[in-house]
Structure formats: C-alpha cells, structure tokens
Amino acid sequence: MTTIPQVTLNDGNAIPQLGFGVYKIPEDQTPEAVLAALEAGYRHIDTAAFYGNERGVGEGIRRSGLDRGDVFVTSKVWWTENGYDSTLRSFDASLERLGFDTIDLFLIHWPAPRSDKYVETWRALERVHEEGRARSIGVANFHTHHLERLARETATVPVVNQVELHPWLPQAGVRRYDAAHGIATEAWSPLARGRILQDPTLERVASKHGVTPAQVVIRWELQLGVIVIPKSTTPERIRQNIDVFGFELDGDDLDAIAALETGERTGKDPDDLG
Ligand code: NDP
User: Fold this and answer.
1) Segments forming the whole domain that contains residue 157
2) What does pTM read for this prediction?
3) DSSP string spanning 164-224?
4) 232 CB within 6 A, ligand 1
5) How many domains does the chain have?
6) 51 is catalytic
7) Does residue 116 belong to any structural domain of this protein?
8) What spacing in Å lies between the alpha carbon of 231 and ligand 1's midpoint?
C-alpha cells in the first residue's frame, strides 16, 4: 500500500500530505466514499460543518475498522458562525456529528472580513486547542493581510492555511508568506473541480509519464510541498489520485505547468465572501 509523506506542523503534530476531500458528497453516500478512500490508502479526510456530511465521515471511519488515531480528520466552522460563542457551539456540534472526542484539525472556513469576527473566532479555536479537543488549529481562505492581523492580535500561529490552489492559481504570494511563518499551505480544489483536466499541456505531460492529467496536477502540488485533498466519488479515480508516488515531474514539466497560471478562481475571493 502507498506510503503517504507526512508534513510536520508548527505545533509538532503531523498531517498526511495527501488527503481526501468530501465537499458536495451527499451525506448518505459519504460513508461509502470514505470507506473507498481508506481502502485505497488515504488516512486524511477533509470535511466541514457546511458540507453536511460529518456524520457520514464518522460512520465511514468507524465502518473501516481502523483505529480513530490512524485517520487524520479536519473540519471547519462556517463563516456565518464566526464569533467566539458561536464557534464554540459549532465546534461542539461538529464533534457530536463526527462521533469523536477530539478532532485532528479544526479550521476557520472563511475570514468573512466584512463581519469582522475572524479574530474572536480564532480565540475560540485557541480555547478548544488548549482544552485538547482540537489537536491542531488553522485557517482557510486567509489572504496574507488576514494572517498579518492574526499575528498582530493573537499569540498562536495557525498550523495550516487551506486555500484554493491549482495550476491556474498557484498562490505564490500566500505560499511565500505561509512558509516564512511556519504555516503549511493546503490546496483546496486542487483539480480546479475537474475543469483544468482537459488542458493540452497537462495531457502532454501526462502521456509523457504514462499517467493521467489529474495525477500530473496532484503530483505538481506535492512537489510544490503543499498538502493536497482531491475529492472524487468514483472509486477508480479515488485510487488513481493516490497513485502519484511512482513518477516525478522534471524541470521542463514544472516550467510548462507554471505557464498555465491565469489567476482564475473556481470559488470566491476571500475578501468578497461574508
Ligand atoms: P477537486 O479539485 O478535488 O475536484 C473534484 C472534481 O474532480 C469532481 O468533480 C471529481 O469528479 C473530479 N475528479 C476527481 N478526480 C478525478 C480524476 N482522477 N479524473 C477526472 N476527474 C476527477 O474539487 P473540490 O472542490 O472537491 O476540492 C477538494 C476538497 O477541498 C473538497 O472536497 C473540500 O474537502 C476542500 N475544499 C475546501 C474549500 C474551503 O473553502 N476551505 C472550498 C472547496 C473545497 P467525481 O467525484 O465525479 O469523480
């Protein structure tokens, strides 16, 4: 079975560099998808309160027969719940739905800067971390100016910043800031929701290595050093997306993929949400 590299976080905990995203998987199909992922060798599942499938994630893990400690699970507080007390309530509800006593990683899902509550949300995450109920805490969709404000006003550095990242949007500025401050960058929609996979450059690089465009993109993200969480409900693709450790992209491939940057997002700009 594939051995997935681990990334050591700034609090000393380790996260598998490749995980399985479950956004848009209906709750009733989630246990099966999670089981397929665990059978394929994934040991890291990325969910969120907003996805409405945390119960399915917990059930899939329990049905796998694996020890809880063998699977790294992330969840997130949705931006409408940003704020100190509402985040504490949301955290409790996530744990209850998952059926866990602790979670490996809990994130602020979006800074939602207009409502101006992400600093107090972060203080709630610091509290559940101090209580030992969230082993690690981090953020998602933070621009560097949001991270700079957290650094000015709070004492804990997020372990990860989970942002949209794929060849159209390689996020060099965010990655540079994160790296300089001990924050691991995590790529959401790493396949640009599947939309990038017909790109002729990716098809050419894929055929050169005898792999698929999705495998090229995931491999590129791993070689950038970011954590990556592709989603699929197709068992063949679930297996394919983890089978990315038997080839390496060379300098020519990396240059060709770098030329695909357009800045195009599949989701919202974090300053425009909330
Ligand atoms: P992805 O970039 O992972 O793309 C998923 C899409 O690509 C699906 O339509 C899937 O189809 C298709 N696909 C997957 N593998 C292959 C393959 N090998 N060949 C062809 N098509 C493929 O999109 P997501 O938006 O789901 O992002 C991944 C995860 O990131 C989410 O599930 C979630 O956990 C997280 N996320 C976090 C966000 C945040 O704000 N923090 C925002 C969005 C996502 P099919 O399922 O039919 O196989």
Assistant:
1) 6-194+224-231
2) 0.98
3) E-BTTB--HHHHHHHHHTTPEEEEESTTGGGTTTT-HHHHHHHHHHTS-HHHHHHHHHHHH
4) yes
5) 1
6) yes
7) yes
8) 4
Ligand 1 lined by 37 (C-beta under 6 Å): no
- CA 131 vs. chain centroid, Å, equals 23
Kindly state whether residue 16 falls inside one of the protein's structural domains.
Answer: yes
Please tell me the distance from the alpha carbon of residue 169 to that of residue 224, in angstroms, as a whole number.
Answer: 13
Ligand 1 contacts CB of residue 46 (under 6 A): yes
Distance separating alpha carbons of residues 95 and 44, to the nearest angstrom? 16
Residue 258 lies in a domain: no
Digit-coded pLDDT (tens) for 212-260: 999 999 999 999 999 999 999 999 999 999 999 999 999 999 999 999 9
Q: From the CA of 229, how far away is ligand 1's center (Å)?
A: 8
Query: Which of 232, 265, 272 is the pocket-test mutation for ligand 1 (most atoms within 8 Å of CB)?
Result: 232
Q: Is there a domain that residue 254 lies in? A: no
Q: Which residue's CA is the nearest one to ligand 1's atom 38?
A: 188
Q: Assign residue 70 the CATH number of its domain.
A: 3.20.20.100
